[in-house]
Amino acid sequence: MDKLTAETIALVLLFAAFPLTSIGSMGHNTFVLWLGLLCVVLGGALPIVTRFMDHSKDMVRDAGVEFDDRAS
Question: Rounded to two decimals, what is the model's pTM?
Answer without folding.
Answer: 0.71
